[in-house]
Hints:
Blueprint: E1 2-3, E2 9-14, H1 20-38, H2 43-53, E3 59-64, E4 67-76, E5 81-88, H3 97-112, E6 116-121, H4 125-133, E7 137-142, E8 148-153
Parallel strand pairs: 5-6
Antiparallel strand pairs: 1-2, 2-3, 3-4, 4-5, 6-8, 7-8
Amino acid sequence: xxxxxxxxxxxxxxxxxxxxxxxxxxxxxxxxxxxxxxxxxxxxxxxxxxxxxxxxxxxxxxxxxxxxxxxxxxxxxxxxxxxxxxxxxxxxxxxxxxxxxxxxxxxxxxxxxxxxxxxxxxxxxxxxxxxxxxxxxxxxxxxxxxxxxxxxxxxxxx
Length: 158
């Protein structure tokens, strides 16, 4: 359990099959504008993509005050911690929730002596700015038209 900037309890719980629709609505609310800016929002294609990628075994639901407010997916690899996704409902953004959860990952990476790596869409300037404030640096671009920015933060001493 962590506290957000307002001192409210923020927690994580393992996702399960019942979270599929919440995660889809969350993705649309949190990232829909960015997806639309690059590819256009095709409801059927996005539903199909979500059906293929929904992974309750590797996703956690972010909770606050008993409400589901987001999701996070992290791959802990031997050589790095990869933050696959973090999505927070727009009405809960800006409260320090993402900063705190990413901070916990950075602390874990520091203890392990490995970097934290993530990808952000080039059009998501708000997320990019957050990652920069947290010490991430651009490591490259990839994807069709180089629409994704790979960012990483090395542990201290590297």
